[in-house]
Design goal:
- This protein is an alpha+beta fold and about 700 residues long.
- Helices cover about 35% and strands about 20% of the residues.
- It is built from 24 helices and 22 strands.
- Strand 19, helix 22 and strand 20 form a beta-alpha-beta unit.
- It starts with 10 loop residues before the first helix and ends with a helix.
- Bound molecules: 2-(butylsulfanyl)adenosine.
- 2-(butylsulfanyl)adenosine binds next to strand 3, strand 8, strand 10 and strand 11.
């Protein structure tokens, strides 16, 4: 008997085949449910191994009975189909673009115009706008017939798109079959964005680079390139996501209640198993909608993916229809774009900056240009490898990018193939300041000057000492400190405290007022510097402001810190072997010990202050972590919590005392629940902060 015959012939076999059919259906449902839990809700219920076992069982059945492989089978998610070319197909309803506005005035004008144009009959619904992030990916439309995914098209030119059905099946958070019991629309065209999370994008570029293959300029290009693949096993390996934000044609099932608002549509999508843009929210007035824009812009960099503005949609679907479209875009929806964070300019020259830790950083000196409202004349090129990877050369016209508080960077040249370009930049093999040979430490991309007394290194360390990240000496410009160092009057940070007004007056035309202010500033710092600031100011490798605060909370003074063993240090939150070793190395260095003795002699010897320690607040010494969005920027709450004695940590573990949870918290919340960590909402956090604000 042929075990692999498609049509079973005897009764036993028919029974087995039927059982296999039932089991396959059961497995498909279970696998898709776990997929949804894992990829959309970020809350898996079973281990990866258990999931793999279900998956393999289904694969086995399908291999044995190919007729049981349905179009919604999760086994299709692994890709493998190789298409000869991408076909094109017409959209049943045109996919319009969106008009843009760039200011509050333009947004208000748009909202008022929509209100005016709306028929008299519906004046009370004009105020409600659905707002969500404008996702910077690739728009697609996925069709579900009676709840089963049957087709996916890119937006294309809006009328005709490319067929990417096989590729979209590999997108793990796009349901192959709608969740729930139905009834499902006879036809539902779900529109949304395919995108790649920043983390995935960075990992992909690293992999591509390691394989000597083309890297992508940004997550959007990476998403588009990954989706429009003829070999869908490539798409499957790229971890794309689909976020659903609107609908094309919807044909409801007989008797199925229709949706009346965009909020209802979003709720239905979520129930069907789709992920929708995080932070989507109903705003009840144009003013509230404007507030949403400000909040989202402030949190832009906290999101795991790129966004470039806010999309507003009139919430009432009848009102949407009444307003209709212009030739290009809907009259009921608009995108309010964030200020561009990229700009184009030319590189005058590439210079090398020697940092506080001796790292040689290539810097592009630019024709000044405004990027997102800030003038930029220097941008980092990171390190030697990055210059070559991006193929950036002197004289090039380049794209500059600035994200949040991050140092501006050069993305790459506009036309790398142009004739007559300069030669590739020759990265120096010695320190441009002291001339010592530069070295590249194992596992590091950076070249370093290892000369401990390199003038550039000591200059940067002294400037760091007084800077905001260090003692934060008020009203002392870095430029003056640099001049004093250049003049040889200041050789270590301790020298700054010995400056007298008389010698400053006349120094580079400083003037009496400034000289007095200068001396006063150091005098104030001498008497009021806290231990945490002092530790941070020393510039111990790997010890930033956060770690400095942790140390200052545990050790009475520098003598106590010096006496601590690596093991003792590692008992503190967020201090691992590398940080501990670096602290030990700092004290092992004779020059550092000598510097500390000079500080002690000057009277700059802070002790763990009464201010920061024993004041008993409920948060004192508590380990805290924040997740989700709160009513004010997260940093603000973190700072308040810290000043109440809390220590902010970076991950959920049993050692965590409190997880503070805002809107859309994600997987940290689940993990914290699992580990039994106490959860605080914003109101309870405020109560705990209450006494200490
Ligand atoms: S709604 C009726 N919501 O941006 C409005 N579109 O520049 C239909 N886009 O082609 C679209 N994020 O594909 C909507 N949250 C969002 C969006 C979004 C990105 C895309 C959309 C459109 C493009 C316009």
């Amino acid at each position: 008997m042929n075990q692999h015959s498609l049509l079973p012939t005897n009764t036993e076999e028919i029974k087995t085949a039927r059982r296999a059919g039932h089991r396959a259906a059961e497995l498909r449902r279970a696998i898709e449910r776990h997929n949804h839990l894992y990829h959309t809700l970020d809350a898996p219920e079973i281990t990866d191994e258990a999931y793999d076992a279900l998956f393999r069982e289904l694969e086995d059945i399908e291999q044995h009975y190919p007729q049981l492989r349905t179009p919604d089978s999760p086994t299709l998610r692994t890709g493998g189909a190789v298409l000869p070319s991408l076909e094109t197909r017409a959209h049943s309803v045109r996919m319009y673009g969106l008009d843009n506005v760039f200011s509050a005035a333009e947004w208000n004008a748009f909202a008022q115009r929509a209100a005016r144009q709306l028929p008299e009959a519906a004046p009370d619904i004009t105020g409600a706008w659905w707002a969500d992030p404008k996702l910077d990916g690739l728009a697609v439309e996925i069709t579900y017939e009676n709840g089963v995914m049957t087709q996916a098209l890119t937006r294309g030119d809006g009328s005709v798109g490319e067929v990417v059905t096989e590729a979209v099946r590999t997108v793990r958070n796009a349901p192959l079959r709608l969740l729930g019991e139905g009834p499902f629309p006879v036809r539902l065209e779900v529109r949304g964005e395919i995108l790649m999370f920043r983390k995935e994008f960075e990992a992909l570029n690293r992999r591509q680079q390691a394989l000597g293959q083309k890297t992508f300029a940004n997550p959007r290009n990476a998403a588009a390139g990954s989706l429009r693949q003829l070999d869908t096993s490539v798409t499957a390996s790229r971890k794309l996501r689909f976020l659903a934000y609107s609908a094309g044609l919807v044909e409801f099932a007989p008797g199925q209640p229709r949706w009346h608002t965009h909020s209802e549509l979003m709720a239905a999508y979520q129930a069907y198993g789709f992920q929708t843009p995080v932070d989507g929210r109903l705003c009840l007035s144009p003013a509230e909608a404007e507030q949403y824009y400000r909040e989202l812009e402030a949190r832009r960099d906290e999101l795991p993916f790129e966004i470039d503005g806010v999309v507003y949609k009139l919430n009432d679907l009848d009102a949407q229809e009444a307003l209709g479209h212009t030739a290009r875009a809907p009259r009921f929806a608009v995108a309010w774009k964030f200020a561009a964070r990229q700009a184009r300019t030319t590189i005058r020259r590439i210079s090398i900056q020697v940092g506080r830790t001796g790292v040689l950083t290539p810097v592009a000196e630019l024709e000044p240009v405004s990027v997102g409202g800030v003038m930029v004349s220097r941008a980092t090129l990171h390190n030697e490898e990055e210059i070559h990877r991006r193929d950036v050369r002197e004289g090039d016209t380049v794209i500059i990018q600035r994200a949040g508080d991050v140092i501006p960077e050069v993305v790459g040249p506009v036309s790398p193939a142009s004739p007559g370009r300069a030669e590739p930049f020759a990265f120096p093999r010695s320190c441009p300041v002291c001339g010592s040979p530069a070295a590249r430490l194992e596992g590091e991309a950076a070249w370093r000057c290892l000369n401990l007394s390199c003038p550039a290194v000591s200059m940067r360390s002294i400037v760091h000492f007084v800077s905001k990240a260090g003692l934060d000496v008020q009203g002392v410009g870095a430029r003056w400190v640099e001049k004093l160092i250049e003049a040889g009057r200041v050789k270590t940070p301790a020298d700054l405290f010995t400056l007298r007004e008389e010698e400053l007056v006349g120094f580079e035309r400083m003037g009496e007022v400034l000289a007095a202010k200068f001396v006063q500033a150091f005098d104030t710092a001498l008497h009021s510097a806290g231990l945490a600031r002092f530790i941070a100011a020393l510039g111990i490798r790997q010890v930033g402001e956060q770690t400095a605060r942790t140390l200052a909370g545990h050790f009475a003074d520098m003598d106590a810190l010096e006496a601590a063993t690596a093991d003792e240090l590692m008992e503190l939150p967020d201090i691992g072997p590398e940080v501990a070793a670096s602290i030990r190395a700092f004290f092992a260095n004779a020059a550092n010990r000598e510097l500390l003795e000079r500080f002690r002699a000057l009277g700059l010897w802070p002790r763990r202050e009464a201010r920061a320690e024993p004041r008993q607040t409920p948060l004192n010494g508590k380990r805290m972590l924040f997740t989700g969005s709160l009513s004010r920027p997260r940093e603000e709450f973190q700072r308040l919590a810290e000043s109440a004695g809390a220590v902010i940590v970076s991950g959920v573990s049993r050692k965590l005392d409190y997880l503070v949870v805002g809107d859309n918290p994600g997987s940290k919340l689940d993990k914290a629940r699992e580990l039994g960590v106490a959860i605080l909402d914003e109101a309870s956090l405020k109560r705990l902060l209450g006494g200490s604000e």
